[in-house]
Design brief:
single chain; mainly beta; Porin; 1 helix
């Protein structure tokens, strides 16, 4: 693939993702259910899209898929763990499976993770994760979503070398609740 094809593919994926978000008529949820938004146990899963700058690969569009389990520790504090995969689009296609863990305070997420960049060779990566998670509700079907804006500095360690990639993105995840006392009930 050449650079022009990556630009077209990136534009198409971002356009489809944006159309899906706006067609779902997601709106801020409003007043929290009894017990607040910080549910006891749950899962979020969904796609993501990011922009990454890497000094070796340049500017990249990065589609991803992420699944996160969370558990409420205190009233506004949760711990979480994520598994995911990224497919940065460049001339040298590579796949990055990753694991992250951290904590959430209200709508703010802070975490750290480890990943492997798999292409012709395997490169170890560690990263930090800073996120802002906004709960959304679908008006027509009464489903819950989380829209998360994030920044992820990625520390790469290829063969006695070190460099940092910067990733800024958006995750759009469906929210599933496991604790019966924290289910949001329709009025």
């Amino acid at each position: 693939m050449n650079y022009l094809n990556h630009k077209k593919l990136s534009f198409l994926i971002v356009s489809l993702f944006t159309a899906f978000c706006f067609n779902s008529v997601a709106v801020p949820v409003g007043p929290p259910p009894q017990g607040g938004w910080n549910f006891k146990n749950g899962l979020t899963i969904g796609p993501g899209a990011a922009y990454m700058y890497d000094k070796h690969r340049g500017h990249l569009f990065v589609p991803s898929l992420d699944a996160t389990l969370f558990h409420k520790v205190k009233r506004h504090v949760s711990i979480w763990a994520s598994l995911g995969g990224k497919l940065p689009l460049s001339d040298n296609i590579f796949f990055v499976p990753y694991f992250e863990a951290g904590f959430n305070f209200m709508i703010f997420n802070l975490g750290a993770g480890y990943g492997l960049s798999i292409s012709d060779n395997v490169t170890n990566q560690t990263n930090l994760f800073l996120g802002l998670a906004l709960p959304l509700k679908h008006q027509n079907r009464f489903k819950m979503f989380v829209l998360e804006l994030y920044y992820r500095p990625v520390f790469n360690f290829p063969e006695n070398n070190f460099y940092v990639s910067n990733e800024v993105g958006l995750l759009f995840k469906w929210l599933f609740i496991f604790h019966k006392n924290s289910v949001y009930k329709k009025d």
